[in-house]
Write a structure and sequence with these properties.
mainly alpha, two-stranded antiparallel sheet, 2 strands, rod-shaped, binds zinc ion
């Protein structure tokens, strides 16, 4: 079965055509990266970044280990202070 007759949606066919022509799959401009123009690539990157939600082991951008080390540093500093 030729690609043009494949049972895919109109949108999917349009995107495949644009991929093959080296154009953005969202707006027909020249590809910048990952089948998207610069504008759509940036939007896509932001969207993916927001999509990523760590399930555990992290507090904001700080790892669990870093958090514990910071806690240890603060508590030991407080102990030293109270002793002096
Ligand atoms: Zn685009």
């Amino acid at each position: 079965m030729p690609d043009s007759e494949a049972p895919i949606s109109r949108q999917a066919r349009w995107q495949r055509k644009h991929k093959a022509l080296g154009l953005c799959i969202q707006c027909s401009r020249k590809v910048f990266r990952s089948w998207r123009c610069r504008k759509h690539y940036e939007l896509y990157a932001v969207k993916q970044r927001l999509r990523y939600v760590p399930k555990r082991g992290r507090y904001g951008d700080v790892t669990d280990k870093e958090l514990r080390a910071e806690l240890k540093r603060l508590t030991s500093a407080a102990k030293r202070k109270s002793r002096a």
